[in-house]
Design brief:
Elements (H helix, E strand, L loop, with lengths): L2 E3 L4 E4 L3 E7 L4 E8 L11 E2 L5 E2 L2 E4 L8 E5 L9 E8 L13 E6 L4 E6 L8 E10 L2 E10 L4 H7 L85 E3 L5 E3 L4 E6 L7 E10 L15 E9 L2 E6 L11 E3 L13 E6 L9 E8 L8 E10 L4 E7 L8 E8 L8 E9 L4 H4 L8
Parallel strand pairs: 1-11, 14-16, 15-24
Antiparallel strand pairs: 2-13, 3-8, 3-10, 4-5, 4-9, 6-7, 7-8, 9-12, 10-11, 12-13, 16-26, 17-21, 17-23, 18-19, 18-22, 20-21, 22-25, 23-24, 25-26
C-alpha cells in the first residue's frame, strides 16, 4: 500500500528503478526537468518531454490506453551534477485550468508496479501547469517530495526559467495562391429569392430531441456587406478586371479557385452535375523550436447551412448528419485533423434538394475556440461522386484570427436553375453552427 503525501511532505526512496505516473481528468502531458543545485538544466538534453522522450536516467513512455504517459527513472543513471528531477503536468488545452477539474494525482512506484507514494494535488485554481513532485538527493540517497506548485507563466515560461532554450516562433504564413482566375461580381439576376411560405421552418422543428442545439434558426436580414455593392453601370468593380461569364468545369483536370471565384456545376460540353461531395481538410500547426513535433489539439467541425432566400431552413452538422429532405449527408466528425486526405466529407444530391432552397453554405467552426492562425493547409474541394474525381479546390491563403470560416457556397438563381459554386474564405467568430447561423446572411 502506498504512503499518502501532502504538499511539502517527503519520503525516502529505497529502490533504484522508479515509475512516475499521473491521473488527470483531462488530456495532459507529463514531462521532466533534470536540474542542478542552481535550479536549471545543464542543456536542453535535460528536458524530457513528448518530442524528446529520453534523457539521462529518465524516459517518457506511453501509458495504458486512455492514460497519460509515464516517466521511468533509473536513479543510478542520473548524472552526479543533477540535484533534482521535477515532474511537470501540463494540460493540453492552454485555455483550461486545473481548477475546473477534479484534483490531479501523482504517484511514484517501483518497476514491479508497486505503489510507493501518492499525492493528490489540491488547491489549484487558474493554473494549467503544475510541478507535481520532485525526486531529490539527500545525504547520499534519494527522496520524493510532494510539490504541487502551480505555474502561471505558461509552459514555455516554466521551462525557460529552468534554463531550457525555446525558439517557438510561428512559421511564416504561406503566400496566397496566384490569381489565375479573377473573382466575378454576382449579377443581379442571381440574387437569392425569398423562401415560399410553405417551406418556412417552424422553430421547434429544428430543435434536436436532446434540446437546445443548435438553437432555433432566426430569419436573417441581409447585412449588405458581402458581396460588396455592385459598381455603377458600365464600370468594373474596384481592383478587378471587367466581369466575365462564369465558366464550366473543364474536362480532365481540377480547377484551382481563388477567393470570390465562381464556377458552374456542369462539365464543359456536358450535363449539369447532380451528385457531388464537398471535402474539407486542415492540419493543426505543429509547435516550432524544441516543442516541434506535437500539433495543437484542434477540434474543427464542418457543417452546411441550407437557405431559402435569406432564411435558414436546415443545418447538417455532426449532431444531425442528414438534411430533412434527404439530399445532404454528413460523413461524421473528425476530432483532430490528423492524417492524410479529407478530414470531413459532405455528400450532396443536387437533384433531391427542396425547390425552395437556393444556397448551401459550407462552414467550419472550432469547437475548442482555436483560431485559424493555429491551422495550416485548410481547404475545401469539390468531388464528382460518380467518378470520385476532384473538380475544383480552394485553399485558404493563410491563418486568420477567427474561430469560424465560411469556406464556400453552392447556389442557384431559382428553382430548376443550374447550380454554381463560389469560393468565399471569410471568417467569423463561432464555436459551433448554432453560434454561426445568425452571422451568415452576409455571405448569401
Amino acid at each position: 500500500m502506498s504512503a499518502v503525501l501532502v504538499k511539502g511532505q517527503n519520503g525516502p526512496l529505497s529502490v533504484n528503478e522508479l515509475v512516475i505516473s499521473v491521473e488527470v481528468a483531462a488530456p495532459a502531458d507529463l514531462s521532466a526537468l533534470l536540474v542542478t543545485p542552481a535550479g536549471t538544466v545543464r542543456s536542453d538534453a535535460d528536458f524530457v518531454f513528448f518530442n524528446q522522450p529520453a534523457g539521462p536516467g529518465v524516459t517518457l513512455r506511453p501509458g495504458a490506453p486512455g492514460a497519460s504517459a509515464v516517466l521511468t527513472v533509473a536513479l543510478d543513471a542520473i548524472p552526479a551534477d543533477i540535484e533534482q528531477l521535477r515532474a511537470v503536468i501540463t494540460l493540453d488545452d492552454a485555455n483550461g485550468s486545473f481548477g475546473q477539474l477534479s484534483a490531479p494525482v501523482a504517484r511514484v512506484g517501483d518497476a514491479a508496479g508497486n505503489a510507493l507514494y501518492e499525492y493528490r494535488i489540491e488547491g489549484l485554481s487558474t493554473e494549467s501547469i503544475v510541478i507535481a513532485l520532485e525526486l531529490y538527493r539527500r545525504q547520499g540517497g534519494w527522496k520524493a517530495r510532494a510539490v504541487g506548485q502551480g505555474y502561471a507563466g505558461g509552459f514555455a515560461a516554466l521551462v525557460t526559467d529552468h534554463g531550457v532554450r525555446v525558439d517557438d516562433a510561428p512559421p511564416a504564413a504561406p503566400q496566397p495562391a496566384p490569381e489565375q482566375f479573377a473573382p466575378q461580381p454576382a449579377p443581379e439576376q442571381f440574387a437569392p429569392q425569398p423562401a415560399p411560405e410553405q417551406f418556412a421552418p417552424q422553430p421547434e422543428q429544428f430543435a434536436p430531441a436532446t434540446g437546445g442545439y443548435p438553437p432555433p434558426l432566426p430569419p436573417l436580414p441581409p447585412t449588405g456587406d458581402y458581396p460588396p455593392p455592385p459598381p455603377p453601370p458600365g464600370q468594373p468593380a474596384a481592383g478587378f478586371p471587367p466581369p466575365q461569364a462564369d465558366r464550366d468545369l473543364p474536362n480532365g483536370h481540377a480547377v484551382s479557385l481563388v477567393k470570390g471565384q465562381r464556377i458552374n456545376l456542369r462539365k464543359e460540353g456536358g450535363a449539369a452535375l447532380s451528385y457531388v461531395k464537398m471535402g474539407l481538410g486542415w492540419d493543426p500547426v505543429k509547435r516550432g523550436g524544441i516543442f516541434g513535433g506535437k500539433a495543437v489539439d484542434v477540434d474543427l467541425d464542418a457543417s452546411v447551412v441550407l437557405f431559402a432566400g435569406h432564411g435558414p431552413v436546415d443545418v447538417v452538422y455532426y449532431g444531425s448528419l442528414n438534411s430533412k429532405d434527404g439530399s445532404i449527408r454528413h460523413q461524421g466528425d473528425n476530432l483532430t485533423g490528423e492524417g492524410e486526405g479529407d478530414d470531413e466529407e459532405i455528400s450532396v444530391d443536387l437533384a433531391r434538394i427542396s425547390p425552395s432552397v437556393t444556397t448551401l453554405l459550407f462552414i467550419v467552426t472550432s469547437y475548442k475556440g482555436h483560431t485559424f492562425e493555429q491551422l495550416a493547409n485548410a481547404y475545401c474541394r469539390l468531388v464528382d461522386s460518380a467518378t470520385n474525381a476532384e473538380l475544383a479546390r480552394f485553399t485558404l491563403a493563410g491563418g486568420m484570427p477567427f474561430t469560424g470560416m465560411a469556406m464556400g457556397k453552392m447556389f442557384r438563381a431559382a428553382p430548376g436553375a443550374d447550380w454554381k459554386f463560389q469560393a468565399i474564405g471569410e471568417g467569423f467568430q463561432a464555436k459551433h453552427p448554432g453560434e454561426a447561423v445568425p452571422q451568415l446572411a452576409r455571405f448569401l
